[in-house]
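Hello Y.,

Per our agreement to keep a running log of every chain we model this quarter, I'm adding this entry. I've kept the format consistent with earlier entries: sequence first, then predicted structure.
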Amino acid sequence: MRLDVVSLAPEAFAPLLGLGVIGRAFAAGIATLHTHNPRDFAEGKYRKVDDEPYGGGAGMVLKPEPVFAAVEAIPVLPRRRTLLMSPQGKPLQQADLQHWATGLDQLVLICGHYEGFDERIRTLADEEISIGDFVLTGGELPAAVIINGVVRLLPGTVGTADSLVEESHSSLLLEHPHYTRPANFRSMDVPAVLRSGDHGAIARWRAEQQQQRTQQRRPDLYARWRAQQLEQQQ
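Predicted structure for the entry above:
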């Protein structure tokens, strides 16, 4: 997969190239990362990329010309989607990451900066994505989150593909608890069922734990899961 990021801070993405399995995926060519700085496409002596907002107000607004030029200079692959990082966007879900990882050849991520961006920049995007109900100084961290989440799902990135199937949010339910050696640590024991060797009992315990944990920690997700189960039974 080809990943293109339009950002005024391209250096923010360099750490991804050396980040564990994500870095190894880039080194192996499973994914490629390309950054594009709008400042390189700005005109004038000072390469100005922002200006005062029409109508007045605090802060500076990212100009449309350099962003449009940066996006239009990116090579276009057949299955491509462009995302705009925005606190006004759709909340990011695991299903989005899975859809992009399996259905695309190219993902373009546009990062805002300053007080905001010229409204016309929105027309470049197929979707606006938010990672939460809060505001950051720019879209670089949300873009890095998406890159991490997508690349780890690409075939060949994670050694054991089955580990991606049972994790939290892959099926609305949160993941079940995990334990490893020692069996007892500071008076805390590993559940006996996990040491029993009874794979059927272990599977039932894990399913029960997923439901209980989701109901306790994310009742909104549990309600959606229950509704899904009832619909499938009809």
